[in-house]
């Protein structure tokens, strides 16, 4: 990492790639949050594959490798794929997963056929289009980063402008309809933004892995917050962080592909969030489970003590610990914990309830 930060301030190529991947990760983190919350995670995979024919057709029509033309072609192709998915789900009995599978297969197969045709053409510019399959962040140049930055900024501004509409569409589309919003138009608009985010990352991450970069930061951020605005901020940060760290590892002497490394970093952040999130994490859940079991044992023991002392007029009268040995779930460790809480007194082999312990047992 020290070597990377040194290069970040001295090597123009590393600066360009890092800024580009960070912007891509940030944009995907913002728009991917809506996809995750709307349970449309597989939509990113279908759109990424749907964009491939658009890239190939843009090259066939122009004969030049221009990033802006590729973005336009991939966006149009991705939007057509998204509209097709929505139409199939709406007008047939097929579920969304079936529609996604159909569109993904058709568009990706068509894209591979077009790439094969392009490779057979005697065109000097044809080489390099296959990088959109698996990504090649090293091919990013300043003009690409400039275009990615402008489009990413426009996407962010539009999300801010339509924040209220997107928020209600995400959580309660039926209520949005009753308020007079055009839900279908909003759905298409939000889907179009997601298409743009996916298209921006195709050159760096590729068709095959792009959906992971769209979903992973949002899935990780979901573990840390229940508030949409906070989740989007965290998701954007994690997306940008994945891009920067992935570029750093790729720029090291290991000579690893940048796109797959970025995705692996994003997935690592997801796993970290799943384990260490303070509210939803597996570790905190296990700690809460253990604490609840401990409290249950203490409360059960206290109730059993109350049942014993209720047979006497004086509840503070000492009783032998042996009386508790045959009770279900009793552990001697519980006595020490109850004494530390000030609920019982222990003298040699006898115990007695304190005033606070008696009130606690009665309330239980």
Q: Overview of this structure, please?
A:
By secondary structure, this protein is an all-alpha fold. The protein folds into two domains: 2-280, ABC transporter involved in vitamin B12 uptake, BtuC; 287-363, Orthogonal Bundle (Arc Repressor Mutant, subunit A), CATH 1.10.10. 75% of the residues lie in helices and 3% in strands. It is built from 17 helices and three strands. The chain has helices at residues 2-10, 12-37, 41-62, 67-91, 96-119, 131-134, 142-161, 163-171, 173-178, 183-205, 210-222, 228-251, 258-276, 282-309, 322-325, 332-340, 355-363, and strands at 319-320, 344-347, 350-353. It has a three-stranded antiparallel sheet. Helix 7 (142-161) packs antiparallel against helix 10 and helix 10 (183-205) packs across helix 11. The longest helix is centred in the last third of the chain and has 28 residues, at 282-309. It is elongated, with a radius of gyration of 30 Å. The two termini are 56 Å apart.
Helix-strand makeup class: mainly alpha
Q: Tell me the number of helical segments per DSSP (H or I, 4 or more residues long).
A: 17
Looking at CATH, which topology of the largest domain would you report? Answer: ABC transporter involved in vitamin B12 uptake, BtuC
Main β-sheet, spatial strand arrangement: 1-3-2
How many structural domains are formed by the residues?
A: 2
- Give the beta-strand count: 3
- Average pLDDT for all residues: 84
Strand content: under 5%
Radius of gyration: 30 Å
């Amino acid at each position: 990492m020290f070597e990377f930060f040194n290069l970040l301030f001295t090597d123009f190529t590393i600066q360009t790639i890092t800024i580009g991947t960070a912007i891509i990760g940030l944009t995907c983190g913002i728009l991917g949050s809506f996809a995750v919350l709307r349970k449309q995670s597989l939509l990113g995979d279908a759109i990424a594959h749907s964009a491939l024919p658009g890239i190939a057709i843009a090259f066939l029509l122009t004969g030049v490798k221009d990033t802006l033309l590729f973005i336009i072609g991939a966006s149009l192709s991705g939007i057509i794929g998204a509209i097709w998915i929505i139409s199939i789900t709406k007008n047939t009995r097929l579920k969304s997963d079936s529609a996604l599978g159909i569109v993904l297969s058709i568009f990706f197969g068509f894209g591979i056929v077009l790439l094969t045709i392009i490779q057979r053409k005697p065109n000097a510019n044809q080489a390099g289009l296959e990088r959109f399959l698996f990504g090649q962040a090293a091919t990013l140049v300043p003009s690409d980063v400039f275009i990615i930055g402008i489009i990413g900024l426009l996407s962010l501004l539009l999300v801010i402008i339509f924040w209220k509409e997107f928020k209600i569409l995400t959580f309660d589309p039926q209520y949005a309809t009753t308020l007079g919003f055009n839900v279908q138009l909003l759905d298409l608009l939000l889907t179009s933004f997601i298409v743009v985010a996916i298209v921006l990352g195709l050159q760096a991450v590729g068709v095959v892995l792009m959906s992971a970069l769209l979903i992973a930061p949002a899935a990780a951020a979901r573990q840390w917050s229940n508030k949409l605005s906070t989740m989007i901020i965290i998701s954007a940060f994690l997306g940008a962080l994945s891009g920067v760290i992935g570029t750093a590892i790729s720029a090291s002497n290991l000579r690893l592909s940048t796109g797959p490394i970025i995705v692996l970093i994003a997935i690592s952040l997801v796993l970290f969030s799943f384990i260490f999130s303070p509210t939803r994490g597996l570790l905190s859940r296990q700690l809460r489970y253990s604490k609840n079991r401990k409290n249950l044992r203490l409360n059960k023991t206290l109730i059993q003590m109350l049942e014993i002392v209720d047979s006497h007029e004086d509840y503070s009268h000492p009783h032998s610990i042996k009386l508790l040995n045959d009770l279900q779930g009793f552990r001697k460790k519980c006595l020490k914990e109850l004494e530390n809480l000030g609920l019982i007194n222990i003298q040699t082999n006898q115990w007695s309830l304190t005033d606070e312990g008696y009130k606690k047992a009665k309330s239980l």
